[in-house]
Write a structure and sequence with these properties.
heterodimer; A: 439 residues; alpha/beta; Aspartate Aminotransferase, domain 1; Aspartate Aminotransferase, domain 2; seven-stranded mixed sheet; four-stranded antiparallel sheet; globular; B: 465 residues; three-stranded antiparallel sheet; 10 strands; 9% strand
Chain lengths: 439, 465
């Protein structure tokens, strides 16, 4: 069996003796005897490191790694630079706890301060927190930030990611607050329905840009309508797209949220990911979670600390703005590292190439007989097509090591491309689709 | 040290992407505000982060007895397992048939963790302990709602609890009833009885409790809550004391969260990601969260997809390593180490409860402070000068001038002896040069930061001069 206990049996005996005990059983003397387990746990015997390695490799080998991924829907297969994989494995970053002791944690604190700054630079917002769990919980926390006694209803577009809608609904259920879904029209949030739903009890409206179907919403107009009704505008964005698309600030958002996975994190079967939250300075003290601030130490030197803690659970207990304690600090460090490694031009290039590849794929697919674009509006990285013989097409792609788009409804597919996909890969995928359709 | 922005040189960059091999596409609208991210070459970036990491103390760098946080050694094999392409390169919405390995990881982890906790079902969605609490209390809420029992509006929390417990109850729409602890730090049965009633939705408790003592009355406590119609939630923060010895399920708890980033040795990453997996008894399984897209879920969902999967991979590697023998052995030695360290420190500082502790213990420095003027904070900051991460300070709230130490099972006797010697040295120093300790640390990255100024005039981002 494996063990990370350093003490030899003799040392343990000596330590027991030092605390006045004869046997290990005495350590559990406070536990009522009828509760103590009398049988060993029903789990396998421990293993050596070599055996564990083989076992984990065998498990990983049961997963299929696709050479080409044309599926997004909330998890995007972008290129991750080598340095972005390497740095977060440094044991200092990896094995530290939350930086409660600033005098010993300036490296973590500074990395978060830099992350917060880069998120502000990317989004145009005034202030960012140190992260929450993922994009879905970021949206749910943003809705909570905007509620008050008079206005407790949250609106969310039906074109938001289904997991995000479900998560926001769950957080609203917890808070005994109501969530109303604004319907779609032609793959986008229906502006007329929205106007009717913006009643005086509405606290906020959550819009996703680009939305679940890949469509770019008329976010500025939505924001104006929301503000006209004196509600808060929460915009959920793909952060990489903001290198080239209008920023949430430019679109009038009060709170920006987003899934930060596309900033250097692997798709990793859904996590760990990164919940991004940024806001206008007016909303700063309502933000949940950690925020790192700059200050001076007792000698007047610049220093970083966990700041504005009066919002948090360990001080405020049941009156805190959220219960969040642990967040996704290492993922935030990774995202900051990714943005620094890519630089402004690299970020723009990745976003531009992503757009170009997605449009190339769309154009090539839609040249095939029977394949048509479902929604006509502008898109960034994802689009929906009608696809005849859909399941046969996806199976043929799968066989060729290509993860095709996500099936939706009866005969639709939500496709995605990134800068990682080469023209040759895309052409190959299209030719496989063509072959199946020709059969 | 300089911020990364202060190292930026216009035009500097790394070459990461090839030229675009398809026609460019202009989107109808683009960003107007210039994108002012830092501009660096790869070597600049590498050196910057290396400098940053030299200003961080992790548990793999040195002793980290941060009470309640279970800072045990994070094994490297677990990291290698989590970095396998067969885990990292898997799309969460890939077809079920292509993710048999991922599904098996969850299945095995659920089986082992259910066995350890005495639960019947498990979800891996929660990303952290507090997130697990939120999920667990929502199980309780759904249970009462499904029975049409709308009168249950209160969650009982002991005054020794972590701040996340009352904050969670509030997020779940409950009023919080704080019950005072008995003088021995355990639940006061009379106070509990007085708080229970037809409006009780449940109780949130950790056992061993936050002063490191096993509550002997636990069966009576959970019986009383059940009798009143409430459910019992186990906060797994202190599970490292009892794994393989006692199951929360056998203590009468209905649901539980476990911190994989504490008890199961996954790294905490300077604040996350963790995993706060939630287990429950059979009758609550129907209320566990599901993903809308992965599982066509109709019930609750607390985040996207299936959870912090790579954290679960690490925890599984850890469980496979320890196995049925190693799991209880880890707990036994966590308890042994805590008692040994307490015994060694006892000659100088005073434990808040002078009896056999579980995996952690609390020092009460209130008398010491009266005597010397040196506070728990001063001692904590002085420990930094001695290369040791301070214990948890001023928690739990029921002990004044508290320092809470949790050495964990992965520390050697030499480390514990050394720590005890440092405590003794500081005890003596407080009697000879208290002023020196008021201004500690003296040899750290920074001196004591002005937190009041940071909150009053928040500077939470860099701006160009």
């Amino acid at each position: 069996m494996g063990s990370y206990v350093p003490g030899t049996l003799q040392e343990r005996q000596e330590m027991l003796k030092a605390i006045g005990m004869e046997s290990e059983e005495q350590l559990y003397a406070d536990v009522p005897a009828q509760m103590l387990l009398t049988e060993p746990l029903n789990i396998p015997s421990g293993m050596s490191e070599l055996e564990v390695r083989s076992r984990m490799e065998a498990l990983a080998a049961e997963n299929k790694v696709y050479k080409t991924v044309l599926r997004g829907a909330g998890a995007y297969d972008h290129y991750i630079p080598s340095i972005v994989k390497y740095v977060p494995n440094k044991e200092e970053f990896l094995t530290a706890y939350t930086p409660y002791q600033a005098e010993m944690s300036q490296g973590i604190l500074q990395s978060i301060f830099e992350y917060q700054t880069m998120i502000c630079q990317l989004t145009g917002m005034d202030v960012s927190n140190a992260s929450v769990y993922d994009g879905a919980t970021a949206a749910a926390e943003a809705a909570a930030m905007c509620r008050d006694r008079k206005r407790s209803v949250t609106l969310i577009s039906a074109a938001a990611h289904p997991d995000v809608i479900n998560t926001v609904r769950t957080y609203c259920y917890g808070a005994n607050a109501e969530l109303r879904i604004v319907p779609c029209k032609d793959g986008k949030t229906d502006p007329d329905a929205l106007k009717e739903m913006l009643t005086p009890d509405v606290a906020s409206m959550i819009l996703q840009q680009p939305n679940f179907f890949g469509q770019l919403e008329d976010a500025r107009a939505v924001g104006e309508a929301v503000h006209a009704a004196k509600a808060a505008f929460i915009l959920s964005c793909d952060p990489l797209s903001l290198a080239i698309l209008p920023t949430p600030k430019e679109l009038g958002a009060d709170v920006m949220v987003g899934e930060g996975q596309c900033l250097g994190l692997p798709i990793a079967w859904g996590g760990p990911y990164l919940g991004i939250m940024a806001a206008t300075s007016k909303m700063m003290r309502k933000l949940p979670g950690r925020i790192v601030g700059e200050t001076r130490d007792d000698a007047g030197n610049k220093a970083y600390v966990l700041s504005l803690q009066a919002r948090e659970q360990h001080i405020r207990r049941e009156k805190a703005s959220s219960n969040i304690c642990s967040n996704e600090a290492l993922c935030a460090l990774t995202a900051g590292l990714y943005m620094a490694a890519m630089g402004p031009e690299g970020m723009k290039e990745a976003a531009r190439q992503t757009t170009a590849k997605a449009h190339y794929l769309q154009a090539e697919l839609c040249r095939l007989e029977g394949v048509s674009l479902k929604y006509a509006g502008p898109f960034y990285q994802e689009f929906v097509t009608v696809l005849p013989r859909r399941d046969a097409v996806l199976a043929a792609l799968d066989e060729a090591g290509i993860l095709g788009g996500l099936p939706l409804g009866e005969d639709e597919v939500l496709w995605c491309a990134t800068e990682k996909n080469t023209r040759a890969e895309l052409d190959r995928a299209v030719s496989i689709v063509k072959e199946v359709l020709a059969k | 040290m300089k911020l990364i922005f202060e190292k930026s040189v216009p035009g500097r960059h790394s070459s990461l992407l090839p030229p675009c091999d398809v026609p460019a596409f202009e989107l109808p609208e683009s960003r107007q505000e210039p994108l002012e991210l830092p501009e660096l070459c790869e070597n600049d970036v590498s050196r910057h982060y290396t400098q940053l990491c030299q200003r961080v103390h992790g548990v793999n760098c040195g002793f980290y007895p941060l009470g309640s946080c279970t800072m045990k050694y994070n094994p490297r094999i677990d990291e290698e397992a989590a970095a396998l392409p067969g885990f990292t390169n898997i799309h969460p919405l890939a077809p079920k048939a292509s993710v048999k390995g991922s599904l098996e990881v969850l299945e095995l982890a659920a089986k082992y963790l259910c066995e350890i906790s005495g639960m019947d079902g498990m979800t891996f969605q929660p990303a952290a302990g507090a997130h697990g609490e939120f999920t667990g209390v929502l199980l309780i809420k759904q249970y009462h709602d499904a029975r049409g029992d709308k009168a249950r509006t209160k969650i009982i929390v002991p005054d020794s609890a972590h701040g996340t417990n009352p904050a969670t109850a509030a997020m779940c729409g409950y009023d919080v009833v704080n019950v005072a602890s008995a003088p021995d730090g355990c639940v006061d049965l009379e106070a509990l009885k007085a708080a229970l009633g037809p409006d009780t939705a449940g109780l949130m408790l950790t056992n061993p409790n936050t002063v490191g003592l096993f509550d002997k009355n636990i069966l009576e406590i959970t019986r009383l809550v059940h009798e009143a119609g409430g459910l019992c939630y186990y906060d797994g923060a202190n599970l490292n004391a009892v794994m393989g010895h006692v199951r929360p399920g056998n203590m009468g708890f209905d649901c539980i969260h476990m911190n994989l980033h504490k008890t199961f040795a996954t790294p905490h990453g300077g604040g996350g990601p963790g995993a706060g997996v939630v287990g429950c008894k059979e009758f609550l399984k129907q209320f566990l969260p599901k993903s809308a897209l992965m599982e066509d879920g109709k019930g609750i969902q607390v985040r996207g997809f299936a959870g912090n999967f790579l954290v679960v991979v690490r925890a599984l590697a850890y469980l496979l390593t320890l196995g049925k023998e190693g799991v209880p052995e880890a707990s036994t030695n966590a308890v042994l180490n805590a008692n040994y360290l307490m015994e060694k420190i006892k000659g100088s500082f005073t434990p808040a409860f002078d009896r056999v502790c579980m995996h952690e213990f609390v020092l009460d420095l209130s008398e010491f402070k009266k005597e010397t003027g040196v506070s728990a904070l001063d001692v904590a900051k002085s420990l930094i000068d001695n290369g040791m991460h301070p214990p948890t300070m001023y928690f739990p709230l029921i002990v004044h001038e508290a320092l809470m130490l949790e050495p964990t099972e992965t520390e050697s006797r030499e480390t514990l002896d050394e720590a005890a010697a440092i405590f003794r040295k500081l005890y003596d120093l407080a009697h000879t040069d208290p002023d020196y300790m008021h201004h500690a640390p003296h040899h750290a990255q920074i001196g004591r930061p002005d937190e009041v100024a940071a909150a009053r005039n928040p500077v939470v981002r860099w701006t160009k001069a």
